[in-house]
């Protein structure tokens, strides 16, 4: 059974890079997998500021997930109506290692799903690195299905990215 959590989110702006950086630093394992090097302040800045082509800062929502003591424990990045109207992309749902496998990721996913539904979305989309087997299992368990594979380069590493979607 999932533990009841007292958490809240803070919508991030460029002034909040330190909050994003705190989560990125604790999620070093992900950055090593993704780009072959540890997390940097620039990674945190990019998460907050990078906007897909054709979208504006009003379409992108980056949130720090904070625990009861206001300690950052996760990051969420969502872009509305991308790559098409009605489909929202989860650019990132990252939890620090101590919070993984606790059921909390599923709670956050449900919040994102409800929010997207309220915002008019008919589906969700996420890209997952092929070597991130735990994440592929997580999203598959939630009902996401692989739609296609894309080649992407992050840092010095080339990846196969599973593009997964779910109708909502």
UniProtKB/TrEMBL annotation:
Transmembrane segments: none annotated. Residues 7-167 form the N-acetyltransferase domain. This is N-acetyltransferase domain-containing protein. GO terms for molecular function: acyltransferase activity, transferring groups other than amino-acyl groups. It comes from Listeria grandensis FSL F6-0971. InterPro entries: Acyl_CoA_acyltransferase, GNAT_dom.
């Amino acid at each position: 059974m999932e533990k009841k959590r007292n958490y809240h989110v803070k919508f991030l702006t460029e002034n909040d890079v330190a909050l994003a950086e705190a989560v990125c630093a604790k999620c070093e394992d992900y950055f090593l997998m993704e780009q072959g090097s540890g997390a940097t302040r620039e990674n945190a800045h990019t998460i907050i500021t990078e906007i897909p082509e054709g979208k504006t800062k009003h379409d992108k929502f980056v949130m720090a997930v904070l625990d009861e003591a206001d300690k950052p424990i996760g990051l969420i990045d969502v872009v509305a109506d991308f790559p098409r109207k009605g489909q929202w992309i989860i650019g990132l749902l990252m939890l620090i290692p101590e919070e993984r496998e606790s059921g909390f990721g599923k709670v956050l996913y449900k919040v994102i799903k409800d929010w997207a539904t309220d915002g008019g979305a008919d589906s969700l989309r996420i890209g997952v690195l092929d070597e991130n087997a735990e994440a592929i299992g997580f999203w598959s368990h939630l009902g996401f299905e692989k739609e296609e594979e894309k080649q992407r380069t992050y840092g010095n590493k080339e990846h196969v990215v599973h593009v997964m979607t779910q109708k909502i």
